[in-house]
Design goal:
Length: 193
């Protein structure tokens, strides 16, 4: 942390403050790269799993099949329409998530990347992964509602389970996400009073 006028000044060895920081904290960048890669790898696996499930679900419209033409028979079209909308949204969100995490995994991991690019990709990836999981759970609940519409207790039980899963995911990633947003877009250490 130096005065803005001293950013380009050099010490006795001819090094700028940034060069001194880089030399003294080489292991910090290595640890950051390893942690970022580990997080991105884990999230890529989850997002790819969601893409696979949702892609398969898109071709399996809920309801019984008509023996004549193979199309699903559904007395209510609104749940089927909502199913298709949520399925499409989940596919889009999970694809964005996979793309962001693959972008992180293939990054150069330069010093400048750690300041804004990598955190921005991680934030977008985590938010889109959350949205993908939430809409996937909505797809699951719609199928349960269509198939078991006469047994509302079962539908409510699955609804509570889906809500618990979404809440658990929020609890797990919330601190990471808030910390990344604050450090990337917040006031940071340089704008404090």
């Amino acid at each position: 942390m130096v005065h803005p006028k001293a950013k380009e000044s050099t010490n006795k060895k001819g090094l700028t403050p940034r060069q001194v920081f880089t030399r003294n904290h080489e292991n910090l960048m290595e640890k950051g790269e390893k942690r970022t890669k580990d997080t991105a790898t884990s999230c890529t696996v989850v997002a790819a799993f969601v893409v696979t499930i949702i892609f398969a679900a898109a071709f399996t419209i809920p309801g019984r099949d008509d023996n004549k033409n193979g199309l699903p028979i559904s007395k209510k079209t609104e749940p089927v329409d909502f199913f298709m909308i949520c399925d499409g949204l989940s596919l889009c969100f999970s694809t964005v998530s996979v793309s962001m995490f693959l972008g992180i995994l293939t990054s150069r991991y330069s010093e400048d990347d750690f300041l804004e690019k990598l955190p921005r990709q991680m934030i977008i990836g985590l938010i889109s992964l959350f949205c993908a999981i939430t809409t996937m759970l909505a797809v699951f609940l719609i199928v349960i509602l269509i198939e078991l519409h006469t047994r509302l207790c079962t539908v409510y039980a699955f609804g509570c389970l889906a809500f618990a899963i979404a809440t658990l995911f929020i609890v797990v990633i919330f601190r990471l996400l808030v910390g990344m947003i604050r450090s990337t877009y917040g006031r940071g250490i340089f704008d404090r009073n």
